[in-house]
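Chapter review: from sequence to fold.
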Amino acid sequence: MRQWLVSHLVSAPLGCLEPGCKSDVWVDLLDWWSVASPNDDLSWDRPAARLPVRPELAAARPYGAPQPPVAVPLNVNENPYSPPTQVVRAISKQIEQAATQLNRYPDRDFTQLRQALAAYLAKESQATGLAADNIWAANGSNEVMLHIFQAFGGPGRTALSFDPTYSMYPEYARNTYTAWATGDRRPDFSIDPSAGIGQIKQTGASLVLLASPNNPTGTAVPLSLVDQMCAESAGQALIVVDEAYAEFRPPGMPSALSLLGRHNNLVVTRTMSKAFALAGARLGYAAGSAELIGYLRTVRLPYHLSTLTQVAASAALAQADLMLARVAELRQSRDQLRATLLGLGLACPDSAANFLLFGHFESADLVWRDLLDQGVLVRQVGPPGYLRVSVGSPDQNRRFVQALTKAIDKMPGALALEPPQEGEIRS
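The token string follows.
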């Protein structure tokens, strides 16, 4: 347990908890975990020989960010604000009514919810021509992505993305026996169009994943690049544009949804976990051609979307304006926080999401630990030397800046301004 917690939760050297460690936070984390999960048998640490597990899973650990109880949790890009009281009441009323029918299986095609999602996209992104047949939904955009990999990946096929990007993508590939390849981004985290298209052809990828805004960099993919990749890879690859954070993009920035009428090898994924503040409800969705959605329906498990999830999402969509009322405030807070980080001498790419990537540190690990010592949890993810922080409430942002300033002041020479280097395709 001790060894697993250190390596999995804090990504720190195993010696950190040995005699001489100067931080009490690690001991607090151990104490917390032993109380929070007293029955966790950590079965993934058992010797592979004891069970006929797939070899590539024998040493793998479950995906997940640390969740220790801290005063300022800013590590998983949640919306810091609870759903409005009026929406909570509407969701509660709908769930109470639905509970009388929980002896019945849910609507496996959830047509009404898909119609509501299509209507929302038409209003939010001016996505015309979408109907229920163009929409799919599942338990978070993670399950939607898994359905996409099940339908368009698999043995003998390759999925391609561009590092740094969302760290779950290679896990979808692993779980579906899909080969995984990555191309690199430019130093400013953009994708070179000719290089990117060349990598699609070189790898023979059947799936190309473009997160826009990209996680963890926050940078948006130009619509012209999506258009070009779709055109150049028609007949070979499905282009997947992951717009989990799309509602946070600057006003006037178009969505890839606008290209669906031009390319049948394009699918756009969204979620209600971020801007809609419904992370606990687990509702993600995708928009694409009716043919593509039909294939996703083929691979889904029966009754995969519970009645309670369906009614909660429908109630939230009925009051979308209320649910999204604080998005503009979060955009403004993001831009103010970025200006503050730049003022501290940090590199911080322009973000179209509800988080910021910042660095470049000689040791991001040391800065991350110091922030945690001060009760602020950010994410150590992405390129070496960088950290990612979610945009929180004004008070949370203020406490983060105070803690970061203290951490930097404690470490003369903490900043290393050398830009990341471009590299070759890795597979």
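Two observations follow directly from the output. The two ends are 32 Å apart (CA to CA). Residues 70-81+326-419 form a domain with the Aspartate Aminotransferase, domain 1 fold (CATH 3.90.1150.10).
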